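Worked problem 6 (solution included).
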Amino acid sequence: MTTKKITKVSGGEDTAPQKPTFVPTAEAKAQAGKFRMYGILLWILAIVAEIVAMVILFKKDPEVALSTGKRIVLIVFLLIDLVLLIAGSFFWKKANRFDPASKRNELKFLFQNQLGVGVAVIAFLPVVILAFIKKEYLVGAIAALFMIGGGAASADYKSPSVEEYSAQTSRVEELTGGNNVYWTKSGTKYHIYEDCPHINTNRTDEIFNGTVAQARALKNITELCKTCENRAMKEKGLTNGVETQPETAAPDEGTKSESEGQ
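Solution. The predicted structure is:
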C-alpha cells in the first residue's frame, strides 16, 4: 500500500454504465396514436349509449314500472354500451403495447394502463344510481353487472412499461449482440433461435421475426424461451461451468398440451 497522498478528482467516479432505455420508433408511436384515437372514439360512443339509457330512465315515473318494450330497449342500449366500452379498451391496451408508459411516474403509469376501468365506471355507475332512484331494480342490477364485467375486461393484467421493454431488450442484446427474436402465432414466448425445437416443428406453419418490442406489441409476448436462453448462455460461456439442462422440446403451436406456453 502506498504512503503517498491520494487526491480524488471530481467527475471521474467509477459508476456502472447505464442500460439504454427503450424508446418506441416513430412508426410505433404513430400506430399507438391511431389505436388510442379508435379507443377514445369507441368510449365516447359508449357514453352516448349510456346517455340514451339515462334519458329513458329520467322520464320514468318512479311509481310506474317501465313497459316491457321500453325495458328491453333500455337493456339493449346498456349492452351496446358494454360492447363499445370493451372494444375501446381493447384498442387502448393495444396502443400501450406500442408506446408503453414508464413506472418512474407511478400515477401516470396506472392512469395510462388502467384507464379503461375508470371509463367502465363512468359508462355505467350513473345508470345504476338513476335506475335505483327510479325503482327499476332489475335494470340497475344489470347495469351494475355490466360495469363490473366491463371493468374486468378493460383492466390490463400485463401492463407494459418502458423499464420492462428495456430490460428484455438488453437481455437479448447481451446474449446475441442484437435485438432479433422469433415467435409464432399462438406461442407465448419469444425465441433467440429460429431453429429452436419449440417452434421448428411440423406443426408450425409460420415463424415471425422482429424485435422484442414488436413481439410484445403484436402478440403481447412477455417472456424469453428458457431453452434459447440456456443455449445462448452456453455458446457465450456465461454458465461459469455449470451445466444447464435444456427444456424438453415441445411444439410452439397447436393445442395447449402441445405448446406448453412456448
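Discussion: Residues 26-58 form the longest helix (33 residues).
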